[in-house]
Request: fold
Amino acid sequence: MSTFQAPKGTYDLLPPRSATFLAVREAIAAPLRNSGYGYVETPGFENVELFARGVGESTDIVTKEMYAFETKGGDRLALRPEGTASVLRAALEANLHRQGNLPVKLWYSGSYYRYEQPQAGRYRHFSQVGAEAIGAEDPALDAELVILADQAYRSLGLRDFRILLNSLGDGKCRPLYREALQGFLRGLDLDGETRRRIEINPLRVLDDKRAEVRRQLADAPLLRDHLCDACKAYHEEVRSLLTAAGVAFEDDEKLVRGLDYYTRTTFEFVHDGLGAQSAVGGGGRYDGLSEMIGGPALPSVGWALGVDRTVLALEAEGVALDVPAATDVFAVALGDGAKRRLFGLVTELRRAGVAADVAYGGKSMKAGMKAANRSGARYALIAGDRDVEEGVVQLKDLESGEQEPLAFDSVIGGLRARLG
Reply:
């Protein structure tokens, strides 16, 4: 056994379970690719200030959870704790917003890192698929992204998730709410760190998960009562578009999310089968983030869905994905001549688009057939040197046990017909 293990709070993805993760990523990405979103990939680490400015210096992500380090050259970098700031930075650096076709619609997939206390559904290394629509202020865009996430989850077979929806207002109406909320919070029995948060960003207190804090927040002023007319109209249009599309949602006036950059629309996907870590994804509008990180005004909206938690949600509902077999055909040879011939045939099958593998390592026929059964293949190709001399290979159906000889030059066509 290796003396090394995966770091605390991380995990390895290995077959066969890794196939489920790949299928989830593909299902989440499919509606995005079908809706004009192009793929973007960013580095796993960025300048610390990108996240301090964008995510927010008062957030737990920046103050407690970010993996930050200094390079030999003196640069202060951080492993990315989320995707939006990195994607927006990349779009700005490449001047995508100046190419005349707004919004810039991007999707991404990757690993993210937060130093948290590991527990079920919460890891220090986790995987997300995200989408960002940059450079347009339109409630239809907000609705589109919620609809696409809903479509992705339903295509996987998930049913027991809920969509929570709220508006956080904008630069015009939120300062008035902030003042009212601060006045309320200052009268509560809170610890010193939370009291400091009241002065920096009081909305963060609404996101506190501790029971003793949440009890005191029952009568907190609601942002919906302080929204300006423009924000009210915007939010109502998002709600109307979702309703017209048949996407059910729940209004949650205390939904804040854990990042400072959100404005107006904010939403979260939750699954009650996951216990305390019920959020499987979420997002919202972040109209001021571009300016926060030194770019022009670019109203934008996006989301990130957790691959890890989506897999847990599927398991909670007992949904087994129809994951294609890694191998459709497995070749077993007895004799050097047969091995060379079958190796060549497997190469031809792969080039023809058939998932094929072969028994390596000079296995006996018995060991080779065990390997064929373990591979999950539907068919086995079996040949000895005598078969090769006669120009045939034995095709065995590993489900029914039926076996028949096929001429070598008819194997590819015959298998493709059988596999559909």
